[in-house]
Amino acid sequence: MSAPLLEVSGLAKHFTLSGGLFGRSTGTVKAVDGVSFKVERGETLALVGESGCGKSTTGRLILRLIEPSAGQLRFDGEDVLALGKHELRALRRRMQIIFQDPFASLNPRLSVSQILAEPLLLHRLATPAEIPARVEELLKVVGLGPQHAERFPHEFSGGQRQRIGVARALATRPDLVVCDEPVSALDVSIQAQVVNLLQDLQAQFGLSYLFIAHDLAVVKHIATRVAVMYLGRIVEIADKTTLYDQPRHPYTQALLAAAPLPSPGLRRERPVLQGDVPSPLKPPSGCTFHPRCPYAQPRCSAEQPELRPLPSGAKVACHFAETIPAPTLIPHAPDNPVIARRFAALAAGAAA
């Protein structure tokens, strides 16, 4: 078996807060606190969780757009954190990012051809004479035409701008693309188009994705494996089927229960979470999820659980993962009486 493309071990980022007259330190925010995972060649690892849990910070740390406080990063066997400025620039040709906001991530003063030419010229992947042909090729790959090359970002829709962002990421022919919530700012119909485009490009070019998202329906469509983050730490990681069918961490169960099912006649049993998300400035002792967990016991507040393997193949950071009851699907009558009658008729027909 070949080595993983990306290996992340104990990755952390702590931000020091300062204030007062002399700018003294007032605390430390543990935005990412000991994250470990692997991304295999050609797979999509989805990173999910609530807003503020550290997903986007993790993606930027991997690309060294932000310098980590601790941990190890290995890309294709190479120690990313040991690289100097010139070596890092060469490596970044193989690691690219698609940003969440397709408008803010594009320079409004540059035309599309100039935006796509920048990475080609920076990494010396094409001569000035070859640029027009390469730009046309990139636009064709993402479903745009050569007539779009001389237009500016404000002349495009949100979905088209995101396609331009995808084309820019592909310009250097990378091996790994960090997709930082690439569809969250788009309409639902456009989301499907962009997700399908990403899947087609992965099959065509053999790409690996770190797909950061909070929409579990999108994640289920595109991911190979899913890692769930809570307050800067990974609490569960498993292949897509195992995680959606047999979630073992209470937080994962709560996330899945909050997502709508494709069948309005069913809903997941919803565990009741207590309180709000704690502040990363003062995280709870032990398991950071224990103040909200319906299954918490005294050990949870005293001892931080490690991410450990289960027989199902999943890894879960919970002391009592084996004994926590699995979520169940329960019949649910739609509020709209017309829809309720239709589903009752469908159910009766299926039973017959």
Describe the structure.
- The chain is of the alpha/beta class and 352 residues long.
- The protein has 2 domains: 38-64 and 80-223, 3-Layer(aba) Sandwich (Rossmann fold), CATH 3.40.50.300; 259-351, no CATH class.
- Helices cover 32% and strands 23% of the residues.
- The protein is built from 11 helices and 14 strands.
- It has helices at 55-62, 85-92, 112-122, 131-141, 158-170, 188-205, 216-222, 240-245, 250-258, 298-302, 337-351, and strands at residues 6-19, 24-39, 44-48, 70-75, 78-79, 95-98, 176-180, 208-213, 225-230, 233-239, 266-268, 308-309, 315-316, 329-331.
- The strands form 3 sheets. It has an 8-stranded mixed β-sheet, with helices on both faces. It has a 4-stranded antiparallel β-sheet with strand order 2-1-4-5. Strands 11-14 form a two-stranded antiparallel ribbon.
- Helix 3 crosses helix 4 (131-141) and helix 5 (158-170) runs parallel beside helix 6.
- The protein starts with 5 loop residues before the first strand and ends with a helix.
- The model has no long low-confidence stretch (mean pLDDT 88).
